[in-house]
């Protein structure tokens, strides 16, 4: 058995509509996912017992100290689930090389879970389970199926019922990372709290046709105007400094800006690769981010390299 390496992208939510809190504690979502060119790599190596190692990709400056190395690692949880379904021992060493910010709202953990599913399915020659990977992934987390699919897609339900969205051309992005993560459950709880305190009724479901049209036409200006994130007020409430970052991006000419998912990473849409380079340099110079990275989208989902 030879090691298998899978490359998997980060995501940005172009629209994250959060419905009212359901009785089961979840929210209905209307979630437009877009895969961007920040990649983690997961290598599955045959071993005598399960284990995980994590390192930052060269030049990526990802803070990896909060990534668990035990059974709590989402990649290892995915490998164990697959082993159980395939009827094999989960004897694999997972080597994770991260370029996706940790707890940054770009679904890095979910991406690693998706990569581990594909890498282990290939390592263990569990070809019959390949079509079932999205369903297995959804058991690990609602962002995992999209990391397998990639490109652009709309997710309904908890975000896991996916339909691909037609996209033309390439969109150029700048991402600003922030010190420390934001816990996704804490951001949802703050969203509920703010809505309750303001007596807000959530209009549901939200329209997304302008966004879908902009993607299909490859129209960055229209896409910039249509970006929307219902979790943004909650992320800003928990991390007020993000407002300065968003304001700086707008003042520096971004076509659109928003908090990525539950944050604290912020995303800025540029007009072209050159515009993105200028915007990234200006944002870095403004001192409103820990780190500024450029990426483009859409890109394919988890792929064996
Ligand atoms: P999302 O956008 O899906 O809400 P996120 O990008 O904000 O997620 P992740 O990077 O996925 O956040 O990590 C969230 C937490 O999950 C981390 O703080 C970490 O403790 C845990 N975790 C488990 N496995 C991993 C992994 N392979 N990579 C990163 N974090 C992991």
Textual characterization of the structure:
It is a single chain. This protein is of the alpha+beta class. It folds into two domains: 4-165, 2-Layer Sandwich (Ribosomal Protein S5, domain 2); 171-297, Alpha-Beta Plaits. The chain is 34% helix and 29% strand. The strands form two sheets. Strands 1, 2, 3, 4, 5, 6, 8 and 12 form an eight-stranded mixed β-sheet that branches. A hairpin with a 4-residue loop joins β5 (152-156) and β6. α1 runs parallel beside α2. The mean pLDDT is 95. Pathway: Isoprenoid biosynthesis; isopentenyl diphosphate biosynthesis via DXP pathway; isopentenyl diphosphate from 1-deoxy-D-xylulose 5-phosphate: step 3/6. It holds the Pfam family GHMP_kinases_C. Keywords: ATP-binding, Isoprene biosynthesis, Kinase, Nucleotide-binding, Transferase.
Characteristics of this structure?
kinase; 2 domains; alpha+beta; EC 2.7.1.148; Alpha-Beta Plaits; ATP-binding; Ribosomal Protein S5, domain 2; 305 residues; nucleotide-binding; 10 helices; transferase; binds adenosine-5'-triphosphate; eight-stranded mixed β-sheet
């Amino acid at each position: 058995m030879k090691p298998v390496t899978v490359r998997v992208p980060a995501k940005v939510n172009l629209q994250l509509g959060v419905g009212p809190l359901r009785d089961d504690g979840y929210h209905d979502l209307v979630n437009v996912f877009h895969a961007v060119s920040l990649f983690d790599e997961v290598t599955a190596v045959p071993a005598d017992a399960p284990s995980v190692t994590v390192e930052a990709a060269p030049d990526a400056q990802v803070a990896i100290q909060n990534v668990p190395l035990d059974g709590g690692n989402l990649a290892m949880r995915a490998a164990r689930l697959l082993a159980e379904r395939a009827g094999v021992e989960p004897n694999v060493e997972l080597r994770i090389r991260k370029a996706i910010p940790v707890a940054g709202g770009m679904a890095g953990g979910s991406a690693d879970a998706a990569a581990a599913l594909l890498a282990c399915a290939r390592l263990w020659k569990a070809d019959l389970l390949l079509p079932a990977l999205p369903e297995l992934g959804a058991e690990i987390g609602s962002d995992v199926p999209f990391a397998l699919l990639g490109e652009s897609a709309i997710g309904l339900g908890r975000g896991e019922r996916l339909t691909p969205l037609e996209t033309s051309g390439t969109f150029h992005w700048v991402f600003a990372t922030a010190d420390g993560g934001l816990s996704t459950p804490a951001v949802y709880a703050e969203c509920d709290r703010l809505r309750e305190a303001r007596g807000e009724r959530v209009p549901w479901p939200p329209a997304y046709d302008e966004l879908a049209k902009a993607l299909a036409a490859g129209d960055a200006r229209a896409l910039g105007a249509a970006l929307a994130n219902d979790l943004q007020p909650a992320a800003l409430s928990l991390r007020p400094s993000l407002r300065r970052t968003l304001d700086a991006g707008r003042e520096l000419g971004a076509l659109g800006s928003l908090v990525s998912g539950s944050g604290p990473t912020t995303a800025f849409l540029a007009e072209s690769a050159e515009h993105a380079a200028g915007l990234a340099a200006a944002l870095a110079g403004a001192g409103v981010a820990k780190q500024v990275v450029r990426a483009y989208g859409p890109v394919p989902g988890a792929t064996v390299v």
